[in-house]
């Protein structure tokens, strides 16, 4: 595939980050971390908030700490608002931390 080398590099990096969060207990490593199984994406005013609100009604669907983390689109590049310029990049650990409550609920 066109992006296979790029994705392989990204996932190799993510795998290392995941291992850094494990702790050792009784000859085993533990820490439940969650990444979303899917994303709700869309342009403004296309109904994504309505879909989000309806999914929240289901007892088996878990959510991140905030509705729109924007990590994949701009925060990982250090962009919070374009007019403010670039800031420090948000590391993937900060993104994963948004799902700690969901991981705890799943556990």
Automatic annotation (TrEMBL):
SUPFAM superfamilies the UniProt entry points to: P-loop containing nucleoside triphosphate hydrolases
Top-level taxon: Eukaryota
Any coiled-coil regions, as ranges: none
GO molecular function: N-acetylgalactosamine 4-sulfate 6-O-sulfotransferase activity
InterPro entries: CS_Sulfotransferase, P-loop_NTPase
Gene Ontology biological process terms from the UniProt entry: hexose biosynthetic process
PANTHER family linked: CARBOHYDRATE SULFOTRANSFERASE 15
Protein name: Carbohydrate sulfotransferase 15
Species assigned in the record: Micrurus surinamensis (Surinam coral snake)
């Amino acid at each position: 595939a066109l992006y296979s080398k790029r994705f392989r590099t990204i996932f190799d990096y993510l795998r290392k980050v995941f291992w850094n969060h494990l702790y050792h207990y009784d000859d085993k490593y533990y820490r439940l971390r969650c990444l979303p199984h899917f994303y709700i994406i869309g342009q403004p005013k296309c109904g994504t908030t309505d879909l989000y609100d309806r999914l929240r009604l289901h007892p088996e669907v878990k959510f991140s700490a905030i509705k729109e983390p924007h990590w994949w689109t701009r925060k990982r590049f250090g962009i919070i608002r374009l007019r403010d310029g670039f800031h420090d990049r948000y590391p993937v650990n900060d993104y994963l931390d948004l799902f700690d409550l969901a991981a705890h609920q799943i556990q």
